[in-house]
Amino acid sequence: MPRTLPDNQRLVNEYSAWLGLQLGLAENTVASYLDDVTKFIRFTDSGGIGVDAVTHDDLQTFVATLVDIGIAPRSQARIISGIKSFYRYLRAEGFVDDDPTILLQTPRQGRHLPNILTVDEINSLIEAIPPGPAALRNRAIIETLYGCGLRVSELVDLTLDKVYLTEGYVMVTGKGSKERVVPVSPIAAELIGEYAAGPRGDIMPRRGEENIVFLNNRGTRLTRQMIFTIIRRLALGAGIVKTISPHTLRHSFATHLLEGGANLRAIQQMLGHESIATTEIYLNLDRTRLRDEILAHHPRNLLHKS
User: Does 297 qualify as catalytic in the annotation?
Assistant: First the structure.
């Protein structure tokens, strides 16, 4: 029977002492681990999960959140290392029986090509939305993520006064608190309008949340983790076996624009990338898909297969 966890502050303090005394880590390393673990605990608290009840799926959601907010692979690897250390401590001290981080992988340090969804898979995701009070909201969320290429953090913080449906754009605040104008697809604009005039109007927003576009039934903004959960459940219902997150819709947005002939600079501006080099990964993805198409369909390759 695992021991009862102390409150978060005491737990972090005891973990700090363990890092210094048991492992003999340098003060700067201890400070870095504590900062990362504190962020992780905030994440679990926001989802109503105790650190002793965290699953591998919860950890993957946390890592996907790091990707979404733009944490570099090297920093992701450091954070994951800290969390692994934290669970070694929890197990050593008898707070958990099992370590959920055992299968958690650190990201590759090189540039890798992101997962994307096909247009058919996007449609399947939308068709998997079950009927109910949240159906219109969830469809508007999917269409906004895919139709605008927003980060999940930008979506959950989107405000009504920054949505210009008639003009066809939204203003979002991205990394570094920089605002940018993003065009909205007609279908996304229509769904946001229907949601705002319909189901959202029936919800009493909590104080401070009156201007937030997407609300839960308690009148507060959706958390990033809730958006991850919604998309993961829809993917399961649609039979999509890829590991996807809200960021997958952003990747799909950019890739499909590029395949349709959009200018790379325009895509950079819509995504809010500071450097064109970040956007160029979609060129590499486009070339990879082109190579796969050639290998799959060129007559000489078909002849070789036979």
Answer: no
Does the active-site annotation cover 56?
Answer: no
18: Cβ–Cβ under 8 A, 6 or more apart, which residues? 89, 92, 93
Choose, from 221, 251, 256, 273, the residue flagged as catalytic: 273
The DSSP code sequence of 131-175 is SSTTHHHHHHHHHHHHHH---HHHHHT-BGGGEETTTTEEEEE-G
Selecting among 151, 200, 221, 224, the annotated active-site residue is: 151
Give the dihedral sign, CA 134/136/137/142. positive
Catalytic residue, chosen from 3, 112, 175, 242, is 175
277-299: pLDDT as tens digits: 666 666 655 555 545 544 454 44
Instruction: Decide if 112 is catalytic.
Output: no
273 is catalytic: yes
- Residue 291 appears among annotated catalytic residues: no
Residue 243, pLDDT above cutoff 90: no
- Domains of the chain from N-terminus onward: 8-92 (1.10.150.130), 119-295 (1.10.443.10)
Q: How far is CA 70 from CA 88, 117, 139, 169, 271, in A?
A: 27, 20, 25, 23, 12
> What pLDDT does residue 208 have?
94
